[in-house]
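Revision sheet: structure tokens.
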Amino acid sequence: MNTDAMPVIDVDSHVEEPKEAWAHLDSKYADRKPFPVVAKDLPVLGGINAFWYIDGTVYPKPVGRGNLVYGTPIEMRFATQKDFTIGSQTMTDIPARLKDMDAVGIDVQVVFSTVFLQPVTDDLLFEAALMRSYNNWMASACAEAPDRLKWGAILPMRDPRLALDELEHSLKLGASVAGIYGTVGETMLHDRYYDDFFAEVERLGVPLAIHAGWSHPGITRSMDDVSGSRAIGFTLPVMMGFYSFLGGGILERHPRLRVAFMEIGVQWVPYLVQRIDHYHHADGALGLPLPVKQPVSETLKQSDVYFTPEADEIYLPQAAEYVGEDRLLFEGDMPHAEAREGAKQEILERDDLSEELKWKILSVNGRRFLNL
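Predicted:
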């Protein structure tokens, strides 16, 4: 296999938002523009000693029940502990970002938000304005290297009309992906309230990313340590989104959607599919009304669905066989702190994956997903 002409495509990396992300905020919200506050650097904070101040609350929340952590704003000590420069992390220095991509062999990278991995305001219109400012700024940053830097638009899904308006705006700016999370608060995505949104995404043929994040407040509030916050609070909403698409009927109603479930690996898929199918058969035998006509395992075979495996997943070969080799995408997660910087090399060095599968993950499938 000639891999020289195969670009490595990272479909899921991030920006640690700088203050410039709010430069395009609607002037009527000028007095509510987010700003960083720096706290005393206490051991309990673990270097997360700077926060975005938004409407009287600070984000992230590194301690206590409902805690979660991430690396923006970059005034925190944690930002200085990474191997990436501040300019690369914040994408305020695009040559530095490209240099970091080159160092790990990434040719094309899709960039998603970090701060919006959790809801940051209860004010729907203010949230939409913050996302509009972010999308405008991200478009301008990626425009410095459009062949290498792509971006996922962040959408205010609490109001599907606003989400569609923002999607249309972002596509005009050059967005490559529509980025949402596995739930909208405590509401599942298969709620009919969102049908018009998914119908339009289907019509437009836009790739849709269901990204990990702390989107479900009830699950987030249940977590009282960082490990649980990452392993459960950050992860379960994507599985809930997977259920919505395959078990809740979204793909039955909108079968041409192209959707990827990002940043929680792929080993969970066989278990969850079989679990959903188990109750589909059991409830059908009882004569109960079913949300979908056929088992999820059949929908998975027929749909344009993708996953981002972790490079070190033990059962990746088995999971690839189960979901299909053409459904796996490569994620670098730059510049987050999950130690994925060497993921490309980890995949290439595995002796339990064929060369064809390695390059499907690293290149072929990503080109198809992104319409490159």
